[in-house]
Amino acid sequence: MALIMAFCTLIFNVLCLPLHLIKALGMYEIYKRVFPICLYRCSIMYNNKMHDKKKELFRSLREFNRHGKQLTILEIGCGTGTNFQFYPPGCKVICTDPNPHFKKYLKSSMEGNDHITFDRFVVASGEDMGAIESESVDVVVCTLVLCSVNNIPKTLQETRRMLRPGGGFFFMEHVVGEPSTWTYFFQHVLQPPWYYYGDGCEMVRDTWKPLEAAGFSDLKLKHVEAPLMFLVKPHIIGYAVK
């Protein structure tokens, strides 16, 4: 099975040679302007499918307002702002994303979620958020983002830096399937074209491992089967405490 998987993956890599060339020539940046439109439509579908799971996950956000002031949430890779509806009333939200073209979608999402206060939008990758002060936020949220960052441990290190002592990191991520399953097989075979379609998204990451090694004082993590297409069915959901 491993040899067949490697061979099929090689075939798809060869078929993706034009895409590899486009990226090498710097022309892939054009797609980054289009990607927010694609993600906006996909996010609506994802929210409909995962509404109950998101609602359950974010129910605990209020518990991290331990200083009695306005709850401050920072969202890494905020995209089109589809998580805003699940945030508690009165909280302040700082949005970050490496793609500046999401900003106009954020404005629309904020107008439709006036129960929260928009602080600012910062163009930054998850690995380098130096614009955000250390120990300045109560909660960091990250959904469907760790699949595409360049360095998960570095992103988690930045997360811990920004969180106040006792702050929470909330996550919901699709991950690699169990070995010897067809999901695992096709995740690896279709990874080359998926990478370009998803703007750097990788289906084959065992994201729970760097989370377990990140040095949080407490980690609540569970593996679930999301009601989605089989390639992104395997998910991890939970939160960690600094």
From TrEMBL:
Any one GO MF annotation of this record: S-adenosylmethionine-dependent methyltransferase activity
CDD domains for this protein: AdoMet_MTases
Signal sequence range: 1-16
Protein name: Methyltransferase-like protein 7A
Methyltransferase type domain segment(s): 74-171
UniProt superkingdom: Eukaryota
Keywords annotated in UniProt: Signal
The species this protein was found in: Gymnodraco acuticeps
InterPro entries registered for this protein in UniProt: Methyltransf_11, SAM-dependent_MTases_sf, Thiol_S-MT
Membrane-spanning parts: none
A Pfam family hit: Methyltransf_11
